[in-house]
Amino acid sequence: MEPGSLPFGEYVTNDKFVFQRIEDYWRRHAETLKNFNEFWDGVASELEWFEKWKNLLDDSNPPFYKWFVGGKINLSYLALDLNVKKGRGNKVALIWEGEPVDGNGMPLEVMRYTYGELLREVNKAAYVLKRLGVGKGDRISIYLPMIPETIIFMLAAWRIGAITSVVFSGFSAEALADRINDAGAKLLITADGFWRRGKIVPLKETADKAVERARSVEKVVVVKRIGLNNVPMREGRDYWLHDLLREVPSDVFVEPERLESEHPSFILYTSGTTGKPKGIVHDTGGWAVHVYATMKWVFDIREHDVYWCTADVGWVTGHSYVVLGPMLVGATQVVYEGAPDYPQPDRWWSIIERYKVSVFYTSPTAIRMFMKFGEDWPRRHDLSSLRIIHSVGEPINPEAWRWTYRVLGNEKVVLGSTWWMTETGGIMISHTPGFFLVPMKPGTNGPPLPGIEADIVDAKGESVPPGVKGYLVIKRPWPGMLHGIWGDPERYKATYWARFPGYFYAGDFAVKDQDGFIWVLGRADEVLKVAGHRLGTYEIESALVGHPAVAEAAVVGVPDPIKAETPVAFVVLKQGFKAGPELREELRRHVRNAIGPIAEPSTVFFVSKVPKTRSGKIMRRLLRSIALNAPLGDVSTLEDETSVDEARKLFEELK
Ligand code: WT7
User: Fold this and answer.
1) I need a surface site. Which of 96, 199, 236, 352 has the fewest CB within 10 A?
2) Residue 22: Cβ-neighbour burial (10 angstroms; 0-12, 13-18, 19+)
3) Residue 4 pLDDT class (50, 70, 90 cuts)
4) Interface ipTM
5) Which residues pair with 66 in a beta bridge?
6) By C-alpha distance, which of 97, 89, 143 is closest to 117?
7) In terms of Cα–Cα distance, which of 494, 489, 519, 524 is closest to 508?
8) CA angle, corner 163, sides to 160 and 164, nearest 5?
9) Tens digit of each residue's pLDDT (9 = 90 or more) over 645-654
10) Does 523 sit in the ligand 1 pocket, CB within 6 Å?
11) What digits encode the pLDDT tens for the residues 271-289?
């Protein structure tokens, strides 16, 4: 979607929902900003606090904002104890489905946990954590797949005030070790393995390699997911969870800690323009309020909904909208372990049909993959239970929106694209069927949520008119906002608050349409979104330079029909190394091992120079054009034009 062509797309409505006038939304929205404190005070008061806050927002030391200062709260209590108290003890909280299937494609493992059962499991896990010496403020790293224990341990940690650092199970040993070391985690929780596309991924093996380099880890807890026989367990360091659980009294109750609103609940590492991934820190009270509000406004959760968010808990979407969100509103949710197309491309549709999923949260990449498989697969299933579908992670192209609306939604759903990021803690820009719903448009993110002041500005920080592309900023603090970068307050200021003083800089390009709807266009920095996953080009370049053959590397993202973007590498070899298909494969494998499969470059070009500006910046736009064999554009700032010709020549040869 390119700006400059107002109006943007047609309005879409249907008769299953009440769609309101856009002007009326803006009036309501303006009220929430005008009465900002009263508004958020009202939202926060819907949660149960052990002690009410004294100061809603302390903005005396920007950008170190503090929300609900003096308030005492506990996420595990809100997610579990409170639901049991409210009579949902026998309501199913979690329907978990493992990947393996029988000959008819039916799941071999399904587990259901009621709120009452989950509360028991979380108490046991909290007891185990305490027995292992974990207490308030301690960091624990969680390197687990999509199994119930992942959710149980996160809630258990938050129950006792421990800080979780979840590392996506697709990340490498090196990536895990870096994250453990940065967070200074004393405990690692992992599993023997998990199922992915019919194969066992031996997770403990990778975890062991990481722990060799992770100085802070004293103990490792291992969940027996698969039942692998020959898992090496180190005496005195490694413990099977089932052994630890045998020591726990069956009626154990661990008192939920009365945590300050400001107490960190989790650290989650995410990529930026330079340096290693940063540990984004989120608090307890503010995050809870934001997630709770958006569960209501954006997903409109009702008592009988069955909610399914397909994100992995290794990402922020899994934190906010799998582990915490659904439980804050007492919903029943589905969690699925495996690949979306295993054993066939209709696995997801079969899940929606069997559990009657009504609220569905997924990603544009997944949708584009299913479009490729064809509509026959979803057509084989009754998807009429769906009433709300949202996507997240990257812009949704209008074609993918239309396909989803028609094929999955039967033109009777609300379908939106919720914009937010790891740093925001919760959804910021979205359609809000549970608050005040305005007409949809294929591809837009919609208006900013109530109480959220988002805008698009030019390089000087001035608001731009509709139709003009600019930078997305948030002009006021919001409850779910990050509370810094773990151990690096200066980087926090520099990354988010220095570019446009007083505003939070998201790092995205965006444009407003004539109705004020926001359309996020993509990253404005050197961050890639590969299948919705955030990767820094710098990270991949460092991994490449870590290979003995590589002198210099430059990585750019090139468009991909399914994943939106894939990394492509340009590599200068050290003397004595020979370019060729074998080395290319080796370098791709090297990145895979250094970061994880998601970072693997789709190709590697060998060049004798990396084109740079006179000030030494890699000319990524130019490399992208070369990779795409597109016109080169302005090369006047180029240090050495021969490198362009050479790169292009090589590209031609390598094609
Ligand atoms: C970046 C943040 C928020 C959970 C998953 C991603 C892009 C996210 C959208 C959307 C267009 C989107 C932005 C953002 N993004 N959602 N609906 N439309 N772009 O979290 O890994 O921190 O990535 O994802 O570029 O900056 P993340």
Assistant:
1) 236
2) middle
3) very low
4) 0.99
5) 58
6) 89
7) 524
8) 110
9) 766 676 666 5
10) yes
11) 988 889 999 999 999 999 9
| Nearest residue to 354 via CA among 412, 300, 414, 308 | 308
Q: How far apart are CA 495 and CA 485, in angstroms?
A: 10
If pLDDT is split at 50, 70 and 90, which confidence band does 235 have?
very high
463-492 residue pLDDT tens: 999 999 999 999 999 999 999 999 999 999
Closest residue (by CA) to atom 11 of ligand 1? 395
Burial zone of 205 (CB within 10 Å; 0-12 exposed, 13-18 middle, 19+ buried): middle
Nearest-10 Cα torsion for 32, 36, 41, 44? 70
Q: In angstroms, what is the span from residue 415 Cα to ligand 1's centroid?
A: 17
- Strand ranges across the sheet with 187-191: 238-240, 219-223, 187-191, 139-143, 163-166, 266-270, 278-282
How remote is the CA of residue 644 from the centroid of ligand 1, in Å? 32
Looking at 35-147, list the stretches that DSSP marks H as alpha helix, in order from N- to C-terminal side: 36-44, 75-76, 82-83, 115-131
Distances (CA, A) of 161 to 65, 167, 346, 426, 547: 21, 19, 41, 21, 41
> Which of 171, 419, 469, when mutated, tests ligand 1's pocket best, judged by the most ligand atoms within 8 Å of its CB?
419
* Closest by Cα among 203, 210, 252 to 224: 203
| pLDDT on residue 121 | 98
Instruction: At 343, list the tokens.
Output: 């054993």
Residue 233, both tokens: 């367990």
Atom 19 of ligand 1, residue of closest alpha carbon: 394
Helices first, then strands: H and E counts in the chain:
21, 29
Distance 526 CA to ligand 1 centre (A): 14
For the chain, give the mean pLDDT. 95
The Cα–Cα gap between 121 and 38 comes to 38
Between 626 and 439, where is the model more confident? 439
pTM, two decimal places: 0.96
Q: How far apart are CA 583 and CA 591, in angstroms?
A: 12
Rounded to whole angstroms, the Cα distance separating 131 from 329 reads 31
